[in-house]
Amino acid sequence: MSTLRIGMDIQEFVSQFKNHPVLFIGTGFSLRYLENSFTWDSLLARVCYELTGNSEKYLDIKSKKQVGDEYKYKNIATELEKLFNDQLERDRNGKFEEINDIFYENMRKGINLSRLKIYITKLLENKIIRNEKQGEISELIKTRKNIGSIITTNYDTLVEQLFEFDTLIGNNILLSNPYGSVYKIHGCISAPENIIITDKDYSSFEYKYDLIRAQLLSLFIHNPIIFLGYSVGDENIQKILKTVFSYVPHNSELSKKIRDNFLLIEYEENSTSETIVEHDMRIEDNVIRINKIKTDNFTAIYKSLSELVLPVSAMDIRKVQKVWNEIRMGGNIEVSITDDLDKLKNGQMVLAVGSRNNIKYEFQKAKEMMQNYFKIIDESNRQLIELLNKQTIPTSQYLPIFAFSNICTELILVEKYKDQQMSLLEKHFKRIQKNNCSNEQNSIIDIINDTSISNSKKQDCIFYSAYMDKINMNELKKHLINMDDKGSTPYGRLLCLYDCKVYK
Are 402 and 269 part of one and the same domain? Predict the structure, then answer.
């Protein structure tokens, strides 16, 4: 980061990033976007009520776990876990029979799971996204092309669903590729044995967390860190800052660089503010100044992140790290000496070493873009689409040019490519008319289930019905996403028809 001006707006602040930001996501994120989400307090209260049928029982437990001004929720969870386990032992086939079934099934395999944690996974497994937040989520999804990694203390899987990053839980965090990963440092409902919730869990976690913190420290030093879904006084933020500044001299240039890289997004109801302010936080004997924005205008933040342009994409870095890890792990490696990259065989992975004047890297060819079409559209990945300008598209090749040209206005030869695609689609429609692919079905599922249509003609029949506007485009989109062979001609043809119908 360069110098920070007081009162700088979010777009100007983000535009100064030199590396891909890392998101540190807390409970407020899920509370904002899910109808069925909980704070730590409300989660434990819900469990206790479902167990006892008495809302005051939780208050009795909670009243005994106060230290100073704080309630110790990990101690509340410890007592609640004992209560939960004892009651389910006595009532094997009662209200929580399913939880007991899972518990005993795992015990027979030698896996000792907490009944409380099993139940928490059931409470959080069904994610219901708030309808009024769909537009904001669409803007959030566009940011993922620029996000390096995500760290979260949330148990649910909303982050993985939206960002489509690899999930790292428990010890896997210590053996991981940081780019393109979600670090679930407090566990996940997909692995209840790793959920951190009781006093015992936190004691074990603190021992391991020193190793995790050391690994994450390099991310904090080299990347902007954006805290999302936390308040200023949150214990997680306090611990992170304490960790970082216990390794870094407080008044050093490196310390200033890290502080400038930190941004806390704090929720303030109905605020449309886009202004960054400085905020002083006391961490033990030190005062640490960080950047903060208080707002309800998350759309502006997400747009600023999605419009960030960096020399190398986060996706490129993930691919290079994958190749490098393959080399380090002793994978199937070949060394080739060449003065022309085009002469290399089309292997799965290539890491080129040499002069910057002689090596050129292009991330995706047109066919690869078609396979990743919906992800590219969701992310509005203009930089990736612009690579089409460096490629020659044969007249016989299908290309979903309509959506791509809407996102990337820098594309050249757009009208030529549009005419090519319209011509290809029309020619194929006339060809399948002659091959008796016309049909009366109005849905893809009806075509698939129609035994009078041979399997070899089903994709052409789907094309015919879609061309004639008899098939809903949302149904066609689902069909395309679920197709196994996304390198096939039928996929490319149907995709371009979808692209033309929706984005022309």
Answer: no
Cα separations in angstroms, 154 against 29, 197, 236, 261, 376: 9, 11, 12, 23, 27
- Domain encompassing residue 48: 40-124
- In 154-261, the DSSP E strands lie at 166-169, 181-184, 225-228
The answer to whether residues 173 and 230 belong to one domain is yes
| Distance in angstroms (rounded) separating the CA atoms of residues 459 and 438 | 12
pLDDT of residue 220: 79
CA distance 492 to 405: 17
Enumerate residues 6+ apart whose C-beta is below 8 A from 92: 100
Q: Give residue 361's pLDDT band: very low, low, confident or very high (50, 70, 90).
A: very low
Q: Which residue has the higher pLDDT, 90 or 4?
A: 90
CB 166 within 8 A of CB 181: yes
**Is it the case that residue 316 has pLDDT exceeding 90?**
no
Can you tell me which residue has the tokens 């399997």? 455
Whether residues 76 and 171 fall in one domain: no
Distance of CA 194 to the CA centre of its chain: 20
For the segment 52-64, the average pLDDT, to the nearest whole number, is 97
pLDDT reading at 403 higher than 90? yes
Same domain, 140 and 264: yes
**What is the identity of the amino acid at 309?**
V
Q: DSSP letters along 5-50, please?
A: PTT-BHHHHHHT-SS--EEEE-HHHHHHHBSS---HHHHHHHHHHH
At residue 146, the pLDDT reads: 93
Contact 85, 115 (CB under 8 A): yes
> Tell me, what amino acid is at 327?
I
Q: Helical H runs in 168-295?
A: 199-222, 235-247, 253-261
Tokens of 255: 């310390």
pTM for the model stands at 0.83
Structure tokens given for 467: 């061309």
The answer to whether residue 359 scores a pLDDT higher than 60 is: no
